[in-house]
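Co-fold these.
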Amino acid sequence: MSEKKLAIIATKGTLDWAYPPFILASTAAALGYQVQVFFTFYGLQLLKKSPDLKVTSLGNPGMPMPLPMPVLLQALPGMQAMMTYMMKQKMKSKGVAGVEELRAMCQEADVKMIACQMTVDLFDMSRDDFIDGVEYGGAATFFEFAGESDICLFV
Amino acid sequence: MSDFDQELDASGLNCPLPILRAKKSLASMDSGQVLRIIATDPGSVKDFEAFAKQTGNELLEHRDEGGKFLFLIRKS
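Predicted complex below.
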């Protein structure tokens, strides 16, 4: 059986949306896939040395809330920090891995992580902001691998 | 449950940690050796079946002991 390939584009930089790319990448690697993740736009936050990821219920009516709360209240200062804190507590209590833990497992399993150079420049980010082992490239770099992948996901 | 060479307690861990930890444990074992896994994540039942199928490691047995799921996997 030749090695299968999984290509993922990670575009979101919130705590909740950090999970799909890292869970899928680490699991696929454990199943023997060769995996590449291309981080672009807000997804670049997931590659930061100390990612400070947050969640928000704004614009997300699907988020389960401990009690019903009008949207305007959800926009008050401190709400985002509180929701992030609650989400992290919840994850801890349910045995859900931390984002950095999953990311480390991806790296250990040789998941190749590519940062989109164009958006790194766009947001005036520096390569020093990111963890070691990240490669830098553009759309063509992504297609080199994605074009031969068995599964290709946009997150 | 029959003999095993190594045990992994993945109790309290959620997807995908039991699979990732199992993979790690198997990597340190020899071909033919058996790993026993204890998990509490109900999703792990289907996940370990799928893991075995895709990696070629044989799922010898799995049992539900009142909320604890036990798996025996033989390394290919």
